[in-house]
Design brief:
- By secondary structure, the protein is an alpha+beta fold.
- The chain contains 7 helices and 13 strands.
- The chain is elongated.
Length: 263
């Protein structure tokens, strides 16, 4: 799998109890939000949150993180030092000291690659919204995804896997997206027209209505080849397909990949 480029993370450590005082910040916070160490140390997270709603989203995530010892991601609006507001993805994780005990909560702030799950169905490429929890149920799809895979809602991620793709491979994509990182990989998928078809799958964090915790991921599929015959050749592990089939595959059938441009 390959990661999509993101800016360097700015890291903070805050106290686990409200109002979450900043007890450490690195120099990259200046690049991300314009704050220098001396200006933010000892201040509360409300200094950076653009609204009470954003602060509550982050506060609840910190409490849950400290109680469950599990990391999470939230998308919120943060205020820069000049007063402007930027939408950021914040990765929240326990900060463990040398004794193995929680010593606050670590926040990594990075440019958001999250997709609004409520708007994903209007995408022109095949998109499905999945739960980040196993067995990774499909919660919603757009028309293009439904046509490509012929899957029903509540189907699981393993229904996408072709014979040469393991569930573990796709699970790694979902896990990366759940932690705030958009990733993509070429996999052999079980489509409606071929049981072992090479596709590029991109997995990105998804947030309902733009702000809140990342509880879903968006799975986007795209074709690798302009013609069905070339892709089928690769899937079968041969250099070429029979000429009669190749001619049929290069037609303008709207149901197959031959009619689709290369991504």
């Amino acid at each position: 799998a390959r990661s999509c480029p993101v800016e360097c993370k700015a890291t903070l450590v805050v106290s686990e109890s409200a109002p979450h005082v900043v007890i450490f910040s690195d120099i990259r916070l200046k690049e991300a939000l314009g704050f220098e160490d001396k200006h933010i140390f000892g201040k509360t997270l409300k200094t950076m949150c653009s609204s009470e709603e954003d602060w509550m989203i982050l506060h609840c995530s910190i409490l849950d993180c400290c109680l469950s010892f599990r990391s999470a991601c939230v998308q919120i609006d943060l205020r820069k030092v000049d007063g402007t507001v930027n939408r950021k993805l914040v990765h929240v994780s326990p900060n463990i000291d040398s004794k193995g005990e929680i010593a606050g909560c670590a926040l990594s702030i990075l440019k958001s690659q999250a997709i609004d799950s409520s708007a994903a169905v209007s995408e022109s490429r095949p998109v499905a919204i999945l739960s980040i929890n196993e067995p990774f149920q499909i919660l919603s799809t757009n028309h293009e995804f439904s046509k490509m895979f012929k899957l029903k809602l509540a189907s699981t991620l393993d229904n996408v896997c072709g014979p040469r793709t393991t569930v573990e491979e796709l699970t790694r994509l979902v896990a990366s997206a759940a932690q705030g990182q958009a990733v993509s990989s070429v996999v052999y998928a079980r489509t409606s027209f071929c049981a072992d078809y090479p596709l590029n799958l991109r997995c990105a964090p998804a947030v309902a209505h733009g702000r809140g915790p990342v509880t879903q991921v968006a799975l986007t599929a795209s074709y690798l080849f302009p013609t069905f015959s070339r892709a089928l050749s690769l899937a079968r592990g041969v250099r070429a397909v029979p000429s009669a089939f190749a001619q049929a595959g290069s037609g303008s059938d709207s149901e197959g990949p031959a009619a689709r441009p290369a991504p």
